[in-house]
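EI: anyone free to look at a 418-residue chain?
SC: sure, send it
EI:
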Amino acid sequence: MNIRAVKGTRDLLPPATEIWNRVEAVAREVFRTFNYHEIRTPIFEETALFARGVGEDTDIVGKEMYTWEDRDGSSLTLRPEATASVMRAFVEHRLDQIPGVKKFYYIGPMFRRERPQKGRYRQFFQIGAEAIGSESPVVDAEVIEMVVEILKRAGLKDFHLLLNSVGCKDCRPAFMAMLREKLTEMAPKLCGDCQRRAVTNPLRVLDCKVPDDQALIDTLPSILDHLDEKCHQHFHVVQAHLRNRDIAFEVRPRLVRGLDYYMRTTFEITHGALGAQNSVLGGGRYDGLAESIGSNIPAPGIGFSIGEDRLVMSVADEPAPSVDVFLATMGEAAEQLAGSLAADLRGAGISVERSVDRKLKRALEVANKIGARFTLILGDNEVEQGVYSLKNMATGEQLPLRRGELANHIQNHVIRTS
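SC: here you go
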């Protein structure tokens, strides 16, 4: 019996990993320009962190977490999301003592026992960021601007930004009471999950994705009609700043996201290439999260997480050639020289692969298969004369070049065509 990857997981193999590397490099560069710094938290935490932070009644905590009892009797959980972990680290290490807004980003695996489907896996990857230490709607707008910039630079086109406000601890309870009352008669007509949510967390009914429930859910009151003055003004300023930056968005009053810690600004970006489950990322403000996990000091924040698996799927194209130069050697002297030539080129930042076959025809076949831009042909004559034949694999053109000319020629060509 062959051992295979566990259901809901997968191996990421080259050349597809080139796209992953490209997307992550784009994200890191955008984070740098917005002054975000990387944070790496453990992939498992105490279960209580997610139960209290994410919410006991969420699908994540109730049905999707990988949880086990450790040898000392403690309950541990593979992280299903990273915001709670980042906030735990923020509180534990007293990062609130650092002046200004603290800006963090992360890239890494998360774990949920979901039903595997297109773009969704049980081990999946997220690119995310958190801005902690300010209630300002200006920060909200900048976070959204940053994520839009990441998507654009990654090559995602025709995506849609959806925006909402879910109020705060002052105005939301009255709306929740009204919603609970409306759902008393409606709930039996909704799906099983919504019947449960109608009792435990009525706001989450608005997050239902079951098509048959949508007509009834559309008759429920809108939270935007029940925001207090502070929340209304906050949402107004967020929208004004997005318009000033020419960032298109659509206000969706039913957008509440799936996590209990969200308040005020919530947002989501969707893309048609992903089908029915079309969300590429989601985010929002979580001003009470620090207190919910035991902090005595308020730490308002806002963040987002990009589903990297889904983003890569949406921007996937043919990977660029992964090797700049393939060294084809014929003869003992050529093999000896190839090592130092390869070192020269690699020192100039050029990727090099060496042939293990001394037959030129076979070497050129391998160069084609691995997508090499050039093949550098080394035979006895080339070694003796100090002039090497560089073949452009796209055009077939061969140029005689001396050792000192090789790196310059290759770099100029790669810069022009990459």
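EI: The mean pLDDT is 86.
SC: 👍
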